[in-house]
């Protein structure tokens, strides 16, 4: 855990902007990380620098070459973080847009006929893309149903739909509503055994800041992250596509490189700020390993992040010091259960005596930033089957502390006992 090393959590927090206070409202605890993580200070500076550069890519001058070098470095750094030595890395306008593009390319590039398969656990980014392009290509869009109690979807739910004519499959790695991860490798293996030519696209948007990414071990064709949830900024998404998917026809300018996924001139600052994220993982990992291998340092950082967050989640559920946890606060219900080992950074809950909207306001008044999730087109797939119109999402990151969890629990106790 980060706090096991003297001074490390302070060093971590010092690298992020607005850790302890909102620039608009003042001091607060930030437990709304699933809606967008805090931003590295280096990202803020890099964004400002690159926004001011007047030169463009592809010109014969040092400034232009510097921009192109930043793009090349950003792609190489993304490969390092993703463990993706092959395939193509590209920037899109958002993680959602990247998922749409990956799914569209797969659906149009796959052999005719067959089926497309997703799950009811998915965010509408991938589920809507699949529905759209299944309709366009005249294929059934099949859905593996998630388990309400565990908050995840397993191989058993996918298996009945995995047939030899499966053309495109999507898997969400972690639900942004339940906060529960999906064991994606057995699902991928089953698809490869029965439908080896199926294109497989993974939504890693919620997972990326909480656990390791290992594309080389997944045997997939597409992966997407949203950098604003991974300590960078809004305004772009990062995608990875296999060589096989990249070879499919896709939108590009006439005469352009067929391997190019990007349209027009890209923001070099997007790539540069993603390099800042990878540099942060490298630095954090160096606090836990002496390895000279950058990938080993990234893996060490991911492991430390996961362990720290799991301890925070345990404290949130079962208490810390003399402060009761959510499991013992009267009237609190936790979606997907209190003790769920697959949970990654998110606790979605309800309180019997207070509506979710009122609870979010109450927590705000007590200095804790959370968020309401509604039974709408974003979260209805999870909340509807549970009979809930809304819930409160409490989402942590590795720069949060046990003291912040204790303050949150005190506020929840006050809300529950009035």
Question: Tags for this entry?
Answer:
15 strands, 7-stranded mixed beta sheet, 2 domains, 4-stranded antiparallel beta sheet, alpha/beta, Aspartate Aminotransferase, domain 2, Aspartate Aminotransferase, domain 1, 40% helix, 418 residues, 14 helices, single chain
Question: In words, what does this structure look like?
Answer:
The two termini are about 35 Å apart. The strands form 4 sheets. The chain has a 7-stranded mixed beta sheet with strand order 4-10-9-8-7-5-6, with helices on both faces. The protein has a 4-stranded antiparallel beta sheet with strand order 11-12-15-14, with helices on one face. It contains 14 helices and 15 strands. It has helices at about 10-15, 40-50, 60-80, 95-110, 125-135, 155-160, 185-195, 215-220, 245, 270-285, 295-320, 355-365, 380-385, 400-415; strands spanning about 20, 25, 30, 90, 115-120, 140-145, 165-170, 200-205, 220-225, 235-240, 330-335, 345-350, 370, 370-375, 390-395. About 40% of the residues lie in helices and about 15% in strands.
Report the principal-axis shape.
Answer: globular
Helix content: 25-40%
Name the quaternary structure. Answer: single chain
Mean pLDDT: 96
> So, the CATH homologous superfamily of the largest domain?
Type I PLP-dependent aspartate aminotransferase-like (Major domain)
| Main sheet overview | 7 strands, mixed
Strand numbers in spatial order across the main sheet: 4-10-9-8-7-5-6
Q: What ranges have pLDDT less than 50 throughout 5 or more consecutive residues?
A: none
The CATH class assignment of the largest domain is Alpha Beta
Distance between the termini: 34 Å
Strand content: 5-15%
The number of strands is 15
CATH architecture of the largest domain: 3-Layer(aba) Sandwich
Radius of gyration: 22 Å
> Order of helices and strands, N to C?
HEEEHHEHEHEHEHEHEEHHHEEHEEHEH
Helix segment count? 14
Supply the number of structural domains.
2
SS content category = alpha/beta
The CATH topology of the largest domain is given as Aspartate Aminotransferase, domain 2
Pfam families: Aminotran_5
Keywords: Aminotransferase, Pyridoxal phosphate, Transferase
Domain Aminotransferase class V: 29-407
GO molecular function, one term: transaminase activity
